[in-house]
Automatic annotation (TrEMBL):
Ion transport is among the record's keywords: no
Pfam family, one: Glyco_hydro_32N
Protein name per UniProt: beta-fructofuranosidase
Keyword vocabulary terms for this entry: Glycosidase, Hydrolase
PANTHER family reported for this sequence: BETA-FRUCTOSIDASE
Alphabetized GO MF terms: beta-fructofuranosidase activity
Origin superkingdom: Bacteria
Domain Glycosyl hydrolase family 32 N-terminal, first and last residues per copy: 6-294
GO biological-process terms attached to the record: carbohydrate metabolic process
The family this protein is said to belong to: Belongs to the glycosyl hydrolase 32 family.
Amino acid sequence: MRPELHFTPTSGWVNDPYGVTWRDGRYHLFFQHVPGSLVWDVAQHWGHAVSDDLVHWTEQPVVLAPDDADGGIWSGTVVDANVGRMFYTSVAVDAPDLGTVQEARPTDDTWTAWKKVDGAVVPLPDDLDLVQLRDPFVLHDGTSWRMVVGAGLSDGTAAALSWTSDDLEGWTYAGVLTSRRDADRDPVWTGTAWECPQLLRVDDAWVLVVSVWSEGHTRYVAAAVGDLVGDRFEARSWQRLTHGAHYASSAFRDADGRPCLIHWLRGVADLEAGWAGAHSVPHVLGLAGDRVVLSPHPAVADRTVKDGDRTVLVDGPVVEVFGPDGVAGYVLTP
């Protein structure tokens, strides 16, 4: 049951991928991991894997684990390939919805060992009635470093909050980057909270990718194309980006600078072999007007076949399908 082209853990549980970084001639991947478990648990660790080609991954030792200061090490990001900064969500076991953003730094050049930095990285806003906060994503927006964090408000509004920094050290709250209400259904519903918000430049526009969450359930991935105006993201369009197993999209630039996404694939497992969870192959982002289009990364494009007007990647128990409109691959797990 273990696929050849889709990353799976040697053993244990895996969900969200993040922090894909091209550094010193190879890629680093970090991911949510529960060693010794075949089901999700609050006590998430940060796993680590490396690859030369974005397809074949070699798992490394766990780099972050819960301790007395945090009950779970949840999703985040890695920035600054020259020095290395991890920004992650620390959660309490009895109240995981409202996390705090924490930082870790590498203790060696191989990135196999990291040390947590004491203290919360960003101050929480006191003007919002937050019921959910997690999953920092950090980028340079051309003016300053910007951290985007997923959130949910008590009135059912899903939001992305942002902070800015000149040096990745001190962070200033910049307000609500953008938000949508639970009642907003046209052209797509985007839930009551956003997980794993990813903001990146694609061609001449900004794209915001969010994982839609509501009532304790992971739903699907949505995307907006728009403009970054000061500290606000002004969407020109919204769309559903995935169907099926894809969730928790993570954005990165490959070795050639292409904007890419990788996803968690839900429901892929071999319980008898002792592992649960997988990651998608990398997808490349493009634009068709104000619509996001996804296609297989060149690293796997030669392994795809045409099925009518769809592009299909078959890899053992996983089938990724890129529809004719280019919107993110449908995933089947036969």
